[in-house]
Design brief:
By secondary structure, the chain is mainly α. The chain has one domain: DksA, coiled-coil domain (Four Helix Bundle (Hemerythrin (Met), subunit A), Up-down Bundle), CATH 1.20.120.910. Helices cover 60% and strands 0% of the residues. α1 packs antiparallel against α2. The longest helix has 27 residues.
């Protein structure tokens, strides 16, 4: 299949609630595995580095839980900055994101 070949079916505008939950469950499981690995690294790893990694993983786990709540209340997939629909491609890569790319750049700038 060449790169010029168009896709046979258009991509959906939104993920279904089931698809969103599956992606979020996968992300949560991955982060919990990372958290266990950091905890098992023991004293051979720099304490400051372990603490920073643990904090980052816990922050992402909170974002994942918040995304589950958005799935339940029906707001999942809508940008919290501008209320537009977050592209499916972005949600496939980062299923717990709260913002579209332009708004994400605005909030981190």
């Amino acid at each position: 299949m060449s790169l010029d070949t168009p896709r046979t079916a258009p991509r959906p505008e939104r993920l279904t609630a089931h698809e969103a939950r599956q992606r979020l469950e996968h992300e949560r499981a991955s982060r919990l595995t990372q958290l266990r690995a950091v905890g098992e690294a023991g004293e051979s790893t720099d304490e400051h580095m372990r603490s920073a990694q643990t904090d980052t993983i816990r922050r992402v786990l909170k974002e994942i839980e918040a995304a589950f709540a958005r799935v339940e209340d029906g707001s999942y997939g809508s940008c919290l900055g501008c209320s537009t629909t977050i592209p499916v491609e972005r949600l496939e890569i980062l299923p717990y994101t709260r913002f579209c790319v332009p708004c994400q750049h605005t909030t981190t700038a």
